[in-house]
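Format notes (please read before filing issues)

Several people have asked whether sequences and structure tokens are stored in separate files. They are not. Every record keeps both together, in the order shown below: the sequence lines, then the token lines. Line labels are part of the format and must not be stripped during preprocessing.
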Amino acid sequence: MKKHLIYIILILMAGVCLAAPAPGWGPLSSKIKVKHTKAEKQRIREDRKAKMAARKRDKIAREAQITEHEEVYAAKRKERQLKSARKPVKPMKTTR
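Then the structure lines:
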């Protein structure tokens, strides 16, 4: 009987350790809320906005770079086509 009691206590202690090591850890992490001051909340909000703005800027820059590459490629393609059009056509050899 004592053995069972010891095991039950050990299991309960393990459950307590799992539940509360730190906020964001363990099975009950969703229940634990971290309290932020108003200033911290404001800072977090501003950081999030800055991140989003930076992402937007990067996306626009990437798209501009892609279109620039496409323009260069199109110009080169046109040049190649003109070169190939200028080449004299060789008469076909007839085999008799």
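For reference, the curators noted about this record: The helical segments are 2-19, 38-86. The chain has two helices and no strands.
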